[in-house]
Amino acid sequence: MLSRTADHLFWMARYTERAENTARLLDVNVQTAMLPQSAESAEHGWRAMLSICELQPHFDDKFDVLTAKDVIDFMVRDPNNPSSIVSCLRAARENARAVRGTLTTEVWETHNATWLEVQDRLRGSRLEYDPSQFFEWVKYRSHLSRGVTIGTMLIDEALNFIRLGTFLERADNTARLLDVKFHSVEPTSQSRFQSQSQSQSQSQSQAEGDADSDAQVDFYYWAAMLRSVSGFEAYRKVYRNVITPARVADFLILRGDMPRSLLACMEEVIANLHKVGNEVSTDTERFAGKLHAELRFHRVDDILREGLHDYLTKFLERIFELGNRISKDFLVPLTA
Amino acid sequence: MPKFFDEMYAESASGKVRGHYREFEAWLAEQAPETIAHKRAEADLIFRRVGITFAVYGNDAGTERLIPFDIIPRVITAAEWHKLEAGLAQRVRTLNMFIHDIYHEQRIIEAGVIPPEQIFKNAQYRPEMQGISVASDIYAHIAGVDIVRAGVGEFYVLEDNLRVPSGVSYMLENRKMMMRLFPELFARYRVAPVAHYPDMLLDNLRSVAPAAVTDPTVVVMTPGMYNSAYFEHAFLAQQMGVELVEGQDLFVEDNAVYMRTTRGPKRVDVIYRRIDDDFLDPLAFRPDSSLGVPGLLSAYRAGMVTLTNAIGTGVADDKSIYPFVPDMIKFYLSEEPILNNVPTYQCRKKEDLAYTLANLPALVVKEVHGAGGYGMLVGPASTKAEIEDFRQRLTAKPEGYIAQPTLALSACPTYVDAGIAPRHIDLRPFVLSGKRISMVPGGLTRVALKEGSLVVNSSQGGGTKDTWILEK
């Protein structure tokens, strides 16, 4: 397969996945913004989201004050924000268009129809009235494109590069989603969060008692996050226990059966990488294999002792590095 | 405007339906207007969703538009097609012989049939091709010959497109659309199928691979997704199951052409290029072009790769060469031309220029190197100012123009805002040449949607119709 073709397929999948996860991320904020809280902490929530997407400076250039409406607009329909949902869907469609001959008609039409429809949906003020409905739509379009891809494409290299893009992006996005809490908590409660996690094994009951009302807010926060990754019911099923940050971290990082967890994403990445492996890709496979092995054999206590934020920051750096290596070995190198 | 031949009602005054349209007319009369309106909207929706669009140059650079599709088919009888087919094969065979001759012995110049300056001063003549042998001596592997009907229904060749003719994807998609919208019509009519065109094309491309290659790798080469015909490039590559490459995907090493793949370099044997000569190789032609492949011409001249169409075919489809085609047919085949040329005044000749200048309001004037309906004058449809403007251009550079009588192009009933009305049409069949000549029955029918307009080009607001060749 042409390197350029593989490159377009890879990015088509990444942008589709990114649009979906941005919708998930925004939805979790819209949901938590409805909890009783101070205006200040609501603003914190939105800032945290911009910060983990590395978009805070870009947003501040454009707006003097932060309002939920502006953040949503900026993240959904701003064509000058390369990470906005509309930009992602456009990029996915442009990449698909560049290789439409490699895609099945159904896959191409799905991307094309999504792009045509998103422009329609963003006309007028429907988004403002019911943002959740829009986010739901974005999610379903992403489900559809994935389903159509798996259901109609030949099981060959093209599919492997699409899957690589999907899961590399999803690993990145899940890590960011999990990290948003770190960015949003104020210094005092942050240390509480840290200590609560660290002391969990020894004096869990005491820590929980100390921060009763905070724990309640926390519950809603983590519940919303679980819902945003479609993991609320799954969490109940897996743990049959109350929601704690440590378990949520375990669930989204280390559980191989949770389809959006870092481990599950890396399993797909190494499987697809292995199938497309060529003469120069051995080091890249080794790099991915190490990352995968660590996830497989890590325990959540170790991660929390190291500090969740530090852990996730390192993970994001390595995912970025892995993406670059894949580009260099198979695709069109980013620097070319 | 002179009276025109109506494809459906041969004599528009009497309103008598031509035999092969009778069944269609009966069917149309049975349809409720809402059904038709609904189907037309459906066609639009499907074309948009499928992304069958073309990019427009000029004002709305970068935007994609649909080519309007009209649901009333253009129907051609078996007998009419039979003649067209024979005429097209004769013409394209001759043109390939002509190009070969020009780049080798130049017998036709020696015989005095064509003045040498017509060839050697032509910007489309490529000295790089002199003496180069190409597979099967074929240059124009894919030809799109524009046919019009005038007077009482006789066919004329308006133009031979031998460089990178486009439109075949619309021919295929239009048929698919008609079968989807109106399956019952295909039960009433026995319409010759066209869907095997991509197979035929692939077969043809493989047959002209360099002689040493047994299992050739074929690719389609596009200037990229912002080219106006990108949809067609992608469509043909997909239909043939071959790679769609851009210049940046190819490189030349030791005169062999390779494409960059995820598993390393892969040898390429046949390039169906949808990119003009000038952009093929920055080392040989335009150095500022980034669309091509450095070294490609050298590999080509060494016979290591086949380009379809060959370099330098423009010397045979230029409007200044067009008037000589009937003589070429006689010269190379010793046959009478089956299809007519439109009478053409070559403004480089004194007497022709004088006639043209004296009759501008009645003539169509075209630039010798123009294409796409740009830079032409349709006398009867032009204002005095436009005519005067052209008069000055003609006087300044007579050799840059030809003139033809304004043909009363045939018309076909077409849906317009006010209902159904006759609109002028043409026909572009696609002729494939390799080890033999082949074509699918039919072609692309283009229709000028503006009342009275004779310009059918999609870049000028033209639409398309499905073209039916009836089986006996």
Residue windows where pLDDT falls under 50 for at least 5 positions of chain B: 58-62
Q: Main beta sheet of chain A, described? A: none
The helicity of chain A comes to over 70%
Roughly how many Å is the radius of gyration of chain A? 20 Å
Order of helices and strands of chain A: HHHHHHHHHHHHHHHHHH
Proportion of residues in extended strands of chain A? under 5%
Would you report the number of β strands of chain A? 0
The CATH class designation of the domain at 343-406 in chain B is Alpha Beta
Share of helix of chain B, binned: 25-40%
Strand content of chain B: 15-25%
- Which outline of chain B best applies? globular
Distance between the termini of chain B: 35 Å
CATH topology title of the domain at 343-406 in chain B: Dna Ligase, domain 1
User: Span from first to last CA of chain A?
Assistant: 19 Å
Order of strands, main sheet of chain B, comes to 5-25-24-21-20
- Unreliable residue runs of chain A: 186-210
Tally of strands of chain B: 25
Oligomer: heterodimer
Whole-number count of domains of chain A:
1
What integer is the average pLDDT of chain A?
87
At CATH level 2, the architecture of the domain at 343-406 in chain B is 2-Layer Sandwich
Short description:
Chain A is mainly α.
Written account of the structure:
The complex is a heterodimer of chains A (336) and B (472). By secondary structure, chain A is mainly α. Chain A is built from 18 helices and no strands. The two termini of chain A are 19 Å apart. Chain B is of the alpha+beta class. Chain B has a domain at 343-406: Dna Ligase, domain 1 (2-Layer Sandwich), CATH 3.30.1490.270. Helix content of chain B is 31%, strand content 25%. Chain B has helices at 22-30, 33-50, 78-102, 107-110, 116-120, 168-181, 183-188, 197-207, 230-240, 296-301, 314-317, 325-333, 350-358, 384-396; strands at residues 9-11, 16-17, 53-55, 64-66, 69-76, 142-150, 154-161, 218-221, 243-245, 250-253, 256-261, 264-267, 270-273, 306-308, 340-341, 345-346, 363-367, 376-378, 401-405, 411-416, 419-428, 430-433, 437-438, 444-448, 462-469. Chain B has a 5-stranded mixed β-sheet with strand order 5-25-24-21-20. Chain B has a 5-stranded mixed β-sheet with strand order 15-7-6-22-23. Mean pLDDT of chain B is 90; it is low at 58-62.
